[in-house]
Amino acid sequence: MNNASKSQKNEPFRYEQIASEVIRLIAQGTYRPGERIPSVRQMSTQQGVSISSVLQAYLQLENQGVIEARPQSGYYVRAPSAENYPEPEISSPSLDPNHVNLHDLMMMAMRDSTNASLIQLGAAMPNLELLPIERINRILASLARTAEPGAHSYELPPGLEELRVQIAKRALLSGCQFSPNEIVITSGGVEGIHLCLYAVCNPGDIVAIESPMYFGTLQLLEVHGLRALEIPTNPREGISLSALQFAIEHNPIKAVLTISNFNNPLGSCIPDEKKKDLVELLARYEIPLIDNDVSGEIYFSEKRPMVTKAFDQKGLVMLCSSFSKDISPSLRVGWVVPGRFKNKIEWLKFTTSAATARLPQMAIAQFLESGGYDHQLRRIRREYASNVALLSQAVTRAFPAGTRVTRPVGGFVLWVQLPENVDSLELYALSLKNNITITPGYLFSPTNHFSNFIRLNAAAWSYPIERAVRRLGELVFELAGT
Amino acid sequence: MNNASKSQKNEPFRYEQIASEVIRLIAQGTYRPGERIPSVRQMSTQQGVSISSVLQAYLQLENQGVIEARPQSGYYVRAPSAENYPEPEISSPSLDPNHVNLHDLMMMAMRDSTNASLIQLGAAMPNLELLPIERINRILASLARTAEPGAHSYELPPGLEELRVQIAKRALLSGCQFSPNEIVITSGGVEGIHLCLYAVCNPGDIVAIESPMYFGTLQLLEVHGLRALEIPTNPREGISLSALQFAIEHNPIKAVLTISNFNNPLGSCIPDEKKKDLVELLARYEIPLIDNDVSGEIYFSEKRPMVTKAFDQKGLVMLCSSFSKDISPSLRVGWVVPGRFKNKIEWLKFTTSAATARLPQMAIAQFLESGGYDHQLRRIRREYASNVALLSQAVTRAFPAGTRVTRPVGGFVLWVQLPENVDSLELYALSLKNNITITPGYLFSPTNHFSNFIRLNAAAWSYPIERAVRRLGELVFELAGT
Description:
With 482 residues, chain A is an alpha/beta fold. In chain A, 42% of the residues lie in helices and 14% in strands. In chain A, helix 7 crosses helix 13, helix 8 packs across helix 9 (215-223) and helix 8 crosses helix 12 (342-353). Chains A and B meet through helix 5, helix 6, helix 8, helix 9 and helix 12 of A and helix 5, helix 6, helix 8, helix 9 and helix 12 of B.
């Protein structure tokens, strides 16, 4: 069998691979908008596939609006559509606090999110291929080989000192000066928020939150028996301070919960000046702020946005974060800087989970110290910014008029408002039948007022994902009856 | 410098090393009670130390009652005193439920327990030298070297299937048949109990507990705002069923919390028949039983005692355990078999800590599958049984009349009742000045009725520990005024 016939063995499937490769090269920035991609003949030679397969791939990419043919010249990467669908407007939730009751829905979404046979457009899972897994594995292997028995004793709160030192150093970049002694290590970021709620709230209390809010956090409110007071939130600039002040003046609010850098699902970022105002507003009322900065390092702009903690004069800001989004989800290492609640958080951590595993803490400390983290982050930011843009464009191409999409300035999720009459749970069910999962908007509010929204994950971009977005668009058309 | 002078360089300290070595050899069973140990001359040659150093060591061991000199014959290991101090009586706590308020005391004890410059007689830390650390490290290193990026994705509840399969297989030995699907993996054993309390209790509810009860569990009751109803507990056979039934008939008890195999601090074991009665009693009243089996594998008898779960007909028993005491405290892997509360526990686990780290789960699954665990456990059981016996004898030798000590049938802690007028917090303070930590009895009850008790850790045995016990005895004499 010669090379040509070998390469054409699975020819029927090759055109999809070609299309996928072109999309990947564009996403990576190898070919930029307006640039010419290899000719049909060049591509056929490069990839060892037939001319007809390449033609088929290019035609499909043209139909999808990814490339355009220019007569006598070749195929070019299309400039991103200047007319992406508009952004959603600021949210307008109910003015009353509400108990949360979302657990059945969430468990369903969780189960589907681990089904490897589905195209995962929903779960906010980072792109493992962009994470420094190889490097971390090498460090872990080396640590395990050389670890003394003592490395297996309980690493009691506040957690490994070397790691706390690295976190404190890194925090300087977000405008924060705190000592390693002010940090408590947790088993992932979620545990940190869980402990903060314990520290400052009792069942029945009211917590003000950005709206929409990441459903994991809403679930924590449900577990703690707390009532959520949803505050209107701008899809670019985060929580409305005037609305928050109004809410504070009319309700006994015990804590405020924000994702000030890159709200999940909005991708919004509270401007630094406004962060300062937020902290000062809450300081006047002596209300603790629990700020989840888990995506804070994944910014698309030039400079790392500050964290609210940087403006904290009274020890009321509880900064929570983790390494799950930018190093490894499964090492389960997060941290809290709890301000005046430090002793309580340390006690709660010890009581509810005793210790955080030591080896992962050692590995992350070593990785941070070695300087590999910044290189890693630059790559992640570039890729996610590109993938978010590609997903937005794909949605704009595929979804019916009346759709709106956010303009995330960090993170890796997109929040999509569907035409009014499209129900996201119906879409969820239909998508599943097409082997696609999405996250229905219902999950992001205790009062169902995002019934026609969905969250999409933009961490990865590939031809199968692009195709799934197109299929999703068809389903939305179907449900919209347009 | 010749060998003799070299070996005698640090001569002043050598006699302590000799004494320590003899104690170790006895603890290991190399020399058994009634057997002759090497003569002074033999030991001097073997260890390369002077005759006078060996003599000094043997004299000290004789004073401590570890060995005895027989004229014209040599030195012999003393038979364990047939007259160890008697056991404490069954506890007689208050009949009313009480809120727990122990956190300041516990945090003090926790901080001292991590101070490496102190002799740790208090914290129930397993003996790391008996754990399969080397083996686990090798497995971890190999897994890390070969792990795919996918190994770093979230391992969502219920947790790694391979590990759940191993746990279900192993459970057959404790009389339990449950499927891997009935298990939820947790980040250590404490988290499991935390989740169980969440699943079945609300703040203000009453939970019946064995008395004394491990302070970590009492702290969980404090975190959850629960009231503890202490049930009289027999130092050999565990919780009193008649007292429990009386309590149930007079109080709206929401859950019962036991450590049916090797209560910490008692070392008691509820006999299997009585376990059945306990489960049936609670089934009649539809009350969930949270049973902490974390030390269940560390039995000193011939056969593994059953677990209460084996008698569970109605899905009311929530079995909690972990690998922290017999594989590694710092891998942070535990598990719950929650019966009818499975869905709720899974939701709670996901909500409050998202996932359990994957690599440690893989390592433990591989270790269990390879069969190394049983070998490991046989060694631990033998050593702990021996160390518990040595500690009991040392306490009997060193402490004043009126002292009582438990007869643990598993685990590795000893519960010591001091003369009535000795306050364990005063003893704690005095001990610290002597660089020794103990765990004061106050921590094991919300109502301070173990003020003249202490818990000692028997996981390790060495000359410095033996010496610390003697010093402790002097301090007890001092406080007792005898």
